[in-house]
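Memo to structure team: turn this sequence into structure tokens by end of day. - J.P.
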Amino acid sequence: MQLDILTPDKKIFSGEVTSVQVPGTKGSFEVLNDHAPIISTLEKGNVKVKSKDGVEIFTISSGVIEVLKNKVTVLAESLIQE
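Reply from structure team:
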């Protein structure tokens, strides 16, 4: 599935992934291929991206996720550098 992670400033990530874990405001959850359509708010935490190249972790302050037809878009308020 296609994942894009965006902030108001720039595109943080774009590519094919096998799964993405996000910090939902009602608890973290994972999106896999063929996930049902969803829009959810996100809180501060880690976005864990798994692809054939390995695992990447991005820490966001808050945001929104949209999943539709194997396209996942994470709109993050900001990226937290650690």
